[in-house]
Design brief:
about 150 residues; mainly beta; 2 domains; 5-stranded mixed beta sheet; 3-stranded antiparallel beta sheet; 3 helices; 8 strands; about 15% helix
């Protein structure tokens, strides 16, 4: 699907049905056109995988469906997931999940290879657009207390 905002096209390759509180797994990236092909998306590599909530955009009829039957396997295969959970008394823990959202580990810091795992926390579509504009990658996480997982 595509969302146009100020002459810019933000593409979301939807990889799942509703997965978590109505969010859908999507590969998010910027494009200069509404045209999507597997080879072009894979070659750009300028995107990230996230759980995205498209409810507002669907309600506003701002979603443009552009193509069906794109091979989504290269975008979401066998990876583990991460989510930072803040404690009520300060501090946080990183939860490592499998794709069924079963907790595999809880730890205070991410190990270097875990930084590449997709973040398994819901993200509003407008926030995903901000991250696309910042050329954000899943390895760029925010560590400060109370700031969340994304650099807003």
């Amino acid at each position: 699907m595509c969302i146009e905002d100020g002459g810019h096209y933000y593409n979301f390759l939807v990889l799942s049905g509703s997965a978590f509180f109505g969010c859908q797994w999507a590969y998010c990236f910027h494009s200069i056109t509404k045209e999507i092909s597997n080879s072009r998306v894979l070659l750009t590599g300028n995107g990230f995988l996230a759980l995205v909530d498209f409810i507002e955009e669907r309600r506003n009829n701002s979603v443009i469906k552009i193509k069906k039957n794109i091979d989504t396997a290269p975008y979401f295969k066998g990876t583990k997931l991460k989510a930072r959970i803040d404690n009520h008394n300060g501090g946080h823990q990183w939860y490592i999940y499998n794709q069924s959202f079963e907790i595999l580990k809880k730890q205070n810091k991410l190990l270097p290879w875990q930084k590449k795992y997709p973040i398994a926390s819901g993200l509003k579509c407008r926030d995903a657009i901000k991250l696309v504009d910042k050329k954000w990658e899943t390895t760029q996480v925010v560590y400060e207390e109370g700031r969340g997982q994304f650099p807003f």
